[in-house]
Amino acid sequence: MKYYSTNKQVPEVSYEEAIFRGLPDDNGLYMPTTIPTLPASFFEEIEDMKLHDIAYEVASRFIGDEIPERDLRKLVSDTLNFDLPIVEVEQNVYSLELYHGPTCAFKDVGARFLARCLSYFSAQSDKKSTILVATSGDTGAAVGSGFLGVKNINVIILYPKGKISKIQEQQLTTLGDNIQALEVRGAFDDCQKMVKDAFLNLELKAKYNLTSANSINMARLIPQSFYYFWAYAMLKDLGDLVVSVPSGNFGNLTAGLLAQKMGLPIKQFIASTNANDVVPTYLKTGVFTPKPSTATISNAMDVGNPSNFYRMKEVFGSSWEDMKVGVIGYAYDDAQTAETVRQVYQATEYLLDPHGAVGYLGLKEYMKEHPKSVGVFLETAHPAKFGDVVEPIIKQPIEMPERLAEYAKRTKVATEVDTTQEELIKVLEKM
Ligand SMILES: *Cc1c(COP(=O)(O)O)cnc(C)c1O
Questions:
Q1: Which residue in 322, 281, 236, 311 sits closest to 44, CA to CA?
Q2: Taking every annotated instance into account, which residue ranges of this chain make up the domain Threonine synthase N-terminal (predicted)?
């Protein structure tokens, strides 16, 4: 499979090159030259398949012969070494729990797959590289955990000072070894811009073999499509499937659209956001206006200029008319989110995290008009990750999974920096 840049100013590259480059030199985003499709027989038998086999079939269509079958099967099963349960919250409303991985957020899926792909190719060529990753909270933890101890790869995590939860900060500042944390005096968008600017500095990029682990990297997106197939396999007999995706940078939603393009029968995608609503606004008006991000209680979705929007556009052939049919957008404020966490817990004893609650809200709003659908929302993080928000809402302590509690005991190590490229260069030089 070859990958092209959405800006079309650079040549097509292999999968290996696309994931090591992260971002093409023309500041576009990589996309597969054709979106592969799966045969009808695959969808007829999918409910009898194991998660790892479904994931392998999907991955192999995007990677082709660059990773041999045996290695790719192992890579997929190492990535998904945890369950992805689907839990019925109310009649016809299902939570797809993506938080059973090591850092308790769905980003483990993408980060673990990316780490294993890079490590596979690095071992073939003994190539050294540096991963730069901007995080609004969960990415940094997942990438740090996914790459910890991986040979030939150093990781630098940039996170906005004071804008992520305590436990998230612990998760990305206490790993040590080949993982370094930068505490940036700015917002997530500043962190993301620092990373983007570093990639656009071609001299710097070449000198340190810079690679991106943000959801702009194709190796994050591909595995995020696996679980849409999985949800379909589990629920296909129940009716038309609609999926609500709580979204920030829109990697997860884009992965779902790719799955749909591959032939997966999902009837409707719903883009649910917090107050950072540039995509729902675009769907309504046809005008895309990136804004500075607003801080909310679903902080991993505080993104004012979502990178994957340009991939979504590509999927819909740049047609706003088509996109607004394929994706329905809703936005919610913090009061609605908090009230939903409280109400759902009270009515069902199911505890949503603030991100999942936004997804639940969008799903319910859509299902009011389409009551016969079978609805799934992605539950993207464990509620204990956002204990400081959720505990006051339900007025009860949340039990912390052991793997999260471990992080809280360790000592934070981070370098505080301003939002300039010079600061980042200083860190790279010291490595
Ligand atoms: C990153 C994140 C999101 C948003 O995912 P995108 O792919 O950036 O849209 C939602 N929920 C949680 C918990 C996250 O960490």
A1: 236
A2: 2-79
